[in-house]
Design a protein that fits this description.
The complex is a heterodimer of chains A (120) and B (379).
Chain A: E1 3-8, E2 17-22, E3 25-32, E4 35-40, E5 54-56, E6 78-80, E7 87-89, E8 106-112, E9 115-119
Antiparallel strand pairs in A: 1-9, 2-3, 3-4, 4-8, 5-6, 6-7, 8-9
Chain B: H1 3-12, E1 20-24, H2 41-47, H3 94-105, E2 109-112, H4 126-145, E3 151-156, H5 162-172, E4 178-182, H6 196-204, E5 209-211, H7 233-239, H8 241-253, H9 256-259, E6 265-267, H10 274-289, H11 300-307, E7 308-311, H12 323-330, H13 333-336, E8 337-338, H14 351-354, H15 360-375
Parallel strand pairs in B: 1-2, 2-3, 3-4, 4-5, 5-6, 6-7, 7-8
Helix pairs in contact in B: 5-6
Classes of the chains: A mainly beta (120), B alpha/beta (379).
């Protein structure tokens, strides 16, 4: 695991996302409400540039004809693939619909001093 | 040869025994008038069937007729002509049918589905539909279920008025020989909450809900709609699967099987090969579109396998015989298929001939085990 300084904290404000190349890998870095997440920029379904997708909460399993939206609880924040809309949890990259068999690689990303540091 | 000796002989031949036929149609000899003894004088008047069948009854607007397949015709006849006798139309006599279908084809149980009532979902007046359904149920019990112990019946309800349908289920569900609820199709797709009371009652009585094509599709305003209006019977007949596909999607996407976790639905004579692609496509789309229907909590195909059954007739005849096995594997036939003959209709399937390309183990599942599991002790 190699440490990469990828920029200053100011470059990753809440709500932002950036796709960066690190050691030949394309990685998406997200600041979701002050929480940093890094995921590999390849959808395990069909290889789409996953991190060009959108971040949102999750529509939770509910009774028929009722909706329950998760809001911003961290475990329910998802990245949706721009190609087919598959949802992956930001916290661990697991697929919402197929967690046993589909997962996106996640990376450790942290603020150290006033720098954002990615471990790949 | 006694019945017992004959059954033993068939077993020695390696022929399957205990076969359940999930789609048989008992017919009226004289249309709605056959129901006269089973409804009040008031309703005979209301329906215009109280008097004799004089010349006026041959014209529209003089008496009700059952909504059926009036605009698409099969010039070879829609019935097996070998099931008719002089002065006896096909499947109008329970004793003759028992001999002609059950004895002759080695069938142990026949589930009767509303011969001429298939299309009552098209009646504009829900009270007319409910009255006809109720009279039919009495007719079926007296004229068929009580005539031969091998008959079982699907009680008919009117889909236009779910509360009346529930009252009919409560009234008839406990009668001997009732194994299912036949719900004629209506303009409203099956997943909509309109039908929830019917599903609740069917689940409570552990009765599967059966649906079936009727001939009213696209003919009447309140009947199910197809994509476009076919010109010919052959187009119409082949396209019937559209309606069942739409209804299956509706059931899954409205979460009917989440709301009614014990409910079973039987799609009779709607085909089943299409179910493979429908399951695959739904499972795939669900992964990206799940948030629109978050009550669909599992891959949609799991609901189909657990809750939906398809009858076999008219059985598939792929160009390559080996594709039968592949297709049956794709649709989880070992769980989902129920043998049916569709007697006395023209496209009848004999259980031994039509399923000859199916392995003996799978044929046993389709003809015996799956229906027994579905209908349970009532069978």
């Amino acid at each position: 695991m190699t440490k990469h300084v990828i920029g200053s904290v100011d470059a990753f404000p809440p709500g932002s996302s950036q796709v960066i190349d690190v050691s030949g890998r394309s990685v998406g870095v997200f600041n979701d409400g002050g929480r940093l997440h890094a995921l590999r920029n390849v959808c395990p379904h069909h290889g789409a540039p996953l991190c060009r997708g959108s971040v949102s909460g999750l529509m939770l399993p509910s009774r028929p004809h009722e909706y329950r939206y998760s809001g911003d609880a961290e475990e329910h924040r998802v990245l949706r693939c721009p190609w087919h809309g598959y949802e992956f949890r930001l916290v661990d990259g697991t697929s919402v619909t197929n967690p046993a068999r589909m997962r996106v690689k996640t990376y450790k990303v942290e603020v150290e001093g006033d720098e954002v540091v990615l471990y790949v | 040869m006694s019945t017992q000796t004959k059954a033993a002989a068939e077993r020695d031949d390696g022929r399957l025994t205990g076969i359940v036929d999930s789609d048989v149609h008992p017919n009226f000899a004289n249309g709605l008038r056959d129901l006269n003894p089973y409804m009040s004088e008031t309703w005979r008047q209301r329906l215009g069937i109280g008097g004799g069948a004089d010349w006026t009854s041959r014209f529209a607007a003089a008496s009700y007729v059952l909504p059926l397949d009036y605009l698409y015709i099969n010039t070879a006849g829609a019935y097996r002509s070998d099931a008719a006798r002089e002065d006896m139309a096909p499947a109008t006599d329970a004793a003759f049918t028992a001999e002609h279908l059950l004895d002759a084809h080695g069938i142990d149980r026949a589930v009767l589905i509303a011969g001429h009532l298939l299309g009552i979902g098209a009646f504009p007046d829900p009270d007319v539909a409910a009255t006809v359904a109720s009279a039919y149920n009495e007719w079926m019990i007296e004229r068929w279920l009580q005539v031969d112990q091998r008959y079982r019946g699907a009680l008919v309800v009117a889909p236009q008025d779910p509360e009346a349908a529930v009252r009919e289920i409560e009234r008839v569900a406990g009668r001997p020989g009732i194994v299912a609820v036949f719900m004629p199709l209506h303009e409203i797709l099956m997943g909509e909450r309109h039908y929830n009371p019917i599903y609740e009652a069917a689940q409570r009585h552990a009765l599967p809900v059966v649906v079936h094509p009727s001939g009213t599709e696209n003919v009447f305003a309140r009947a199910p709609r197809m994509a476009g209006t076919p010109t010919y019977y052959i187009e119409w007949h082949t396209a019937l699967a559209q309606i069942h596909q739409s209804n299956l999607l509706s059931l899954i996407c409205h979460g009917v099987f989440e709301r009614f976790p014990e409910l079973k639905v039987v799609i009779a004579e709607g085909g089943f090969a299409w179910a493979a692609e429908t399951m695959w496509k739904l499972d795939r789309d669900w992964q990206g579109l799940r948030d629109e229907v978050p009550w669909v909590k599992r891959p949609p195909s799991e609901y189909v396998r657990e809750h939906v059954r398809f009858t076999t007739q008219p059985f598939v005849e792929p160009h390559k015989r080996e594709h039968v096995a592949t297709l049956l594997e794709m649709v989880y036939a070992e769980e989902t298929l129920l043998y049916s003959s569709d007697y006395p209709h023209w496209d009848f399937d004999d259980p031994h001939r039509a399923l000859a390309s199916v392995s003996p183990e799978l044929r046993r599942r389709i003809c015996v085990d799956n229906p027994r599991r579905l209908y349970g002790d009532r069978l």
